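Data availability (excerpt). All sequences and predicted token strings are deposited with the supplementary files. A representative entry, Glycerate-and formate-dehydrogenase, is shown inline so that the format can be inspected without opening the archive.
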Amino acid sequence: MAPSVEQTHGVLVLGEPLETQKEYAQLAKEFKFKKVDCKSREEAIAAVKAAALEGGYDAVLFPFGSQKGPINEELLGPLKGQLKFVTGIGAGYDTVDTKWLESVGAWYCNTPESVSDTTATTAVTLILICLRHATSLMASTKAGQWRGNNVLTPDARGFVVGIIGMGTIGKLVRNKVQALGMKVIYYNRNRLPASEEGGATYVSWEELLAQSQLISVHCPLSPATFHLLGAPEFEKMQDGVMIVNTARGAVIDEKALVEALKSEKISRVGLDVFEEEPKIQPYLLECERAALFPHFGSATVRLHVDTELEGISNFRDWVATGKPKNGVNDPLGKSTL
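Structure token line:
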């Protein structure tokens, strides 16, 4: 079937879809379409150059696992003057030069909805592991020491969780821990409307640091949030505070985190992300009070299909409205970055 009248848009797909071949085939029926299975960044750059020479491609889509390094001018520069839309995979976009895309008039969309619930569940898993000292309980039991030197743990009821970043994932974490009886306070760049707070209490940055028994990180990594938590912030926290991070590793100064763990200023951590992945500070690997996951927060059986479908939905939303709901920048001139 020949493409429809939607020839005003051209779709360049850099990678092979894992679960949504049918949906991508439908795009090929409706739009000018080219799919290149790039095995390396060099192949991706070459594919972009070829598409730019051919002309007519204003949208670039990345299926799951197909991004080869940063999405930036080096990769997409040849499409300058044509490019209007890019969608990647996942909630984070710290490897995307959103400012450059904005400067050439192109949206960048992430896929937050498809990874949000699974990431929130992982965060709550780590919260519970910390709360109930699960790593220590498992270690003593497996070592044949039965209860060993384990002590009574905090109770979930009334336990104060401070959430940094009350976006989609933060709200889901709020709901899940509140169901267990925990109290939620939060800090956000802007306070949520009362109708969206869902029983959580907005506090200042200083109040969040001082009042939280456990802090769960859910903000994106940006120049403003790099090392948002470090030695000065740890000093303002309660003795024995716990930290959970399922956002991006570099939001926390990992070396300072290690020192705070050693001194037991921080009693326990639950980490799914690290500052220099896959490298991890040696002390974290040996510390019984550290629960560590290999950046696996959203990795469930639905991950591939859900993220790819959301990416396609981003594109269709942009075609239909000109302003996609998952846009993280604003080439129309009202950037919030």
